[in-house]
Amino acid sequence: MDRRQRRTRSLIFTAFSALLERKSYTAMTVQDIIDEADIGRSTFYAHFETKDELLKALCNDIFDHVFSAEIMSEEKHDFSHHSSFRDRITHILYHLQEKQQSIRGLFNGECGEIFLRYLKEYLCQVFNEHITIKDDVPHDYALDLAVSSFAETVRWWLKGHSDYTPEQMTAYFFRCISIL
Amino acid sequence: MDRRQRRTRSLIFTAFSALLERKSYTAMTVQDIIDEADIGRSTFYAHFETKDELLKALCNDIFDHVFSAEIMSEEKHDFSHHSSFRDRITHILYHLQEKQQSIRGLFNGECGEIFLRYLKEYLCQVFNEHITIKDDVPHDYALDLAVSSFAETVRWWLKGHSDYTPEQMTAYFFRCISIL
DNA sequence: TCAATACCGAACACCTTGTTCTGTAATAAT
DNA sequence: ATTATTACAGAACAAGGTGTTCGGTATTGA
């Protein structure tokens, strides 16, 4: 990848993240982004077809870091059979905390909806085998609720309560959910 | 209120709800709404300053029905000291089910974010005193998680699983959350 | 019957979008 | 170091949405 491309892409991401903390996603125009990034109009469209694609790309960047890092360290340390589900959850929280700066704005307004949808897709894979099967509750529902609750936990944590440690948040979460 | 105003307002609401099932909120333009409702442009703006105000008004209409009806019947039957928290939850589900038609579209995309935020505000009042206080979990967090989980339960229920009864959903919900 | 007012429809100035173009400068490879 | 490639800037553009205004019509409630 050309050095200029990397630079421009980074400028756009940074500008976008910064703008999200001041302005709602819907209200934000492409004009705002290219003004903030100080790049030409055609340059933006050379990188991203639309504002939604930009959001998607940013989300993927974050999730690649959080989840592929998780899997990597899992393989590296051969956690797959040693670490508990609780540890994996704590692990994910650590990685999310590292990306805190980029993530915080993503919770706001309408793009929070999109970000959380993507997040839940990844979480489904992690949670799927760890739901305690109860015959009196539909598995679909239990999984959906567990994943959504964890996503909400992350949101609550990173929006104003990031002084708690990942270990603490994991403990709180498991304390409140009775199907894990 | 003038009969013509009621008619127009109703036309707008109906058109808006119908459109939400086919089109995302963000992609929807005021032009789409007035075409669907078959009213003049200036007429729309005489009723609502913006698309967001329309959404807000629709949400308020729904919540007024769901929660004020709940409170009313509570007062009428003097449920306040007799009915359990579980019954109140079931009750709310019944009222939400009645408004199912209008609500379904509201879960989609970005306006789902807004609708759920409003819903959670109301739910906070209902849930606040019924959270089991645990010293090892922040009360803020427990309340937020319970409310969000219930909101997610409603979403899951009304989006493709509305064959379950309110009583069943209440049971499932309480089965999964250990702080109520 | 009549005054009030809600609606219509057209026009408007303004903004955002996404595309296209030309010229310039940075890049990577030979 | 030279050269071909390619990313960028910047301007212009048509198309479409926004929110407002205004004069005319029709409905309403008293």
What does this structure look like?
Two copies of one chain form a homodimer. With 180 residues, chain A is mostly helical. The first copy, chain A, is built from nine helices and no strands. In chain A, helix 1 (3-20) crosses helix 2, helix 4 (51-76) runs parallel beside helix 7 and helix 7 (109-127) packs across helix 8 (139-158). Chain A is elongated and about 55 Å long. The termini of chain A are far apart. The model of chain A has no long low-confidence stretch (mean pLDDT 91). Chain A binds a DNA duplex (30 and 30 nucleotides) through helix 1 and helix 3.
What are the SSEs and their pairings?
The structure is a homodimer of 180-residue chains.
Chain A: H1 3-20, H2 30-37, H3 41-47, H4 51-76, H5 85-98, H6 100-104, H7 109-127, H8 139-158, H9 166-176
Chain A binds a DNA duplex (30 and 30 nucleotides) through helix 1 and helix 3.
CA(first)-CA(last) distance of chain A: 44 Å
What proportion strand of chain A? under 5%
Largest sheet of chain A: none
Shape label of chain A:
elongated
**pLDDT < 50 runs, ≥5 residues of chain A:** none
The helix/strand order of chain A is HHHHHHHHH
**Most residues in contact, chain pair and counts:** A-B, 31 and 30 residues
Helix content of chain A: over 70%
Say how many strands of chain A there are: 0
Average predicted confidence as pLDDT of chain A:
91
What is the CA-atom radius of gyration of chain A, in angstroms?
18 Å
Assembly state: homodimer
Structural class of chain A: mainly alpha
Report the total helices of chain A: 9
